[in-house]
């Protein structure tokens, strides 16, 4: 059996591949920037210790946010090894997951727009260039966090229409105190801030919301995509819920800059399964 995981800060998609079947599992998300070995292993044990013969897992291919530096990878590897005791553990950054899922063996620019954001230039084999990712405190342009922050700022600074302000008040009945508590007193406030993209999508046709979306996504294009060599000739692929739900606007913004949108994938996990099946050709499977 092999296990493939695609983990963001909000949730992790798992595929357990054995002989003629694939089993899907979903757990909370992990990010070694914020989460410890104990926290990660504890969640994994709850999800996998019952109903799975862990010693039959021979390899785990884990792609995760926050897994770029060796020290961060080791946090996740240690936690995984506590659960999958006989497995060879391979940790890759979530950008590699996005690149392999979207590009296969072709070159392209790959962008992640979910709770957070990231991007890279992929040459068909490896990541050839990457604009620095500064995280949700300093960067994450175009992400759910970035867009949610723009919305909340506009709301509290009285920049929204009365209609939108009234609608958003029903989402946060506790007002400023509720928001500040969830942002500053929680271990990882990113998911809470990013949750407001649901509001943005619900009212995406309102001109104030369009302004917020246009700014947030344009900032990502300007600060990330346009920094890569070949950005006007290579396909630009997107992974993540924000990109998926606002694909029309992203395509429009790219076309205005003479750039070409490629694939929009909400979840890369199924494409990662196919990628690893090509390197484990003896596994012929059916999805369950």
- Order of helical and strand elements: EEEHEHEHEEEHHHHHHHEHHEHE
Number of helices: 13
The average pLDDT score comes to 88
Outline: globular
CATH classification, class level of the largest domain: Alpha Beta
CATH homologous superfamily title of the largest domain: ATPase, nucleotide binding domain
Cα separation of the termini: 15 Å
Helix content: 40-55%
According to DSSP, the number of beta strands is 11
- Total domains: 2
Provide the CATH topology of the largest domain: Nucleotidyltransferase, domain 5
- What structural class results from the helix and strand content? alpha/beta
Poorly predicted ranges (pLDDT <50, ≥5 residues)?
A: 282-288
Described by strand count, sense and barrel closure, the largest sheet is:
6 strands, mixed
Task: Please tell me about this protein's structure.
- The structure is a single chain.
- It is built from 13 helices and 11 strands.
- Helix 10 (207-223) packs across helix 12 (247-256).
- The strands form 2 sheets. The chain has a 6-stranded mixed beta sheet, with helices on both faces.
- The two termini are 15 Å apart.
- Residues 282-288 have low confidence and may be disordered.
- The protein is globular.
- 43% of the residues lie in helices and 22% in strands.
- The chain has helices at residues 37-48, 70-83, 94-103, 135-138, 144-156, 162-169, 175-184, 190-194, 197-202, 207-223, 241-245, 247-256, 269-279, and strands spanning 2-7, 11-18, 21-28, 59-64, 88-93, 108-113, 117-122, 127-129, 235-239, 260-265, 286-287.
């Amino acid at each position: 059996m092999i296990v493939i995981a695609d983990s963001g800060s909000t949730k992790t998609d798992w595929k357990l591949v054995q002989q003629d079947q694939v089993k899907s599992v979903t757990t909370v998300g992990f990010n070694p920037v914020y989460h410890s070995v104990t926290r990660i292993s504890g969640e994994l044990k709850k999800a996998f210790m019952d109903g799975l013969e862990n010693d039959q897992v021979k390899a785990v291919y884990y792609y995760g946010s926050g897994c770029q530096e060796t020290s961060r990878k080791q946090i996740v590897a240690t936690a995984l090894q506590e659960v999958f005791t006989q497995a060879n553990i391979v940790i890759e950054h979530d950008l590699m997951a996005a690149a392999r899922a979207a590009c296969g063996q072709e070159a392209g620019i790959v962008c992640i727009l979910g709770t957070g954001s990231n991007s890279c230039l992929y040459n068909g084999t490896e990541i050839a260039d990457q604009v620095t990712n500064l995280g949700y405190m300093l960067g994450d342009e175009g992400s759910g966090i970035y867009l949610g922050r723009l919305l909340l700022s506009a709301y509290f600074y009285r920049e929204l229409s009365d209609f939108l302000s009234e609608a958003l008040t029903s989402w946060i009945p506790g007002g400023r105190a509720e928001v500040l508590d969830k942002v500053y007193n929680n271990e990882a406030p990113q998911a809470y801030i990013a949750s407001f993209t649901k509001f943005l999508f619900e009212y995406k046709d309102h001109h104030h919301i369009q302004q917020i979306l246009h700014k947030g996504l344009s900032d990502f294009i300007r600060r990330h995509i346009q920094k890569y060599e070949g950005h006007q000739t290579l396909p630009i692929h997107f992974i993540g819920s924000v990109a998926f739900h606002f694909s029309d606007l992203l395509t429009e913004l790219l076309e205005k800059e003479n750039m070409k949108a490629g694939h929009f994938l909400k979840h890369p996990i199924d494409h990662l399964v196919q990628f690893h099946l090509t390197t484990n050709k003896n596994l012929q499977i059916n999805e369950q």
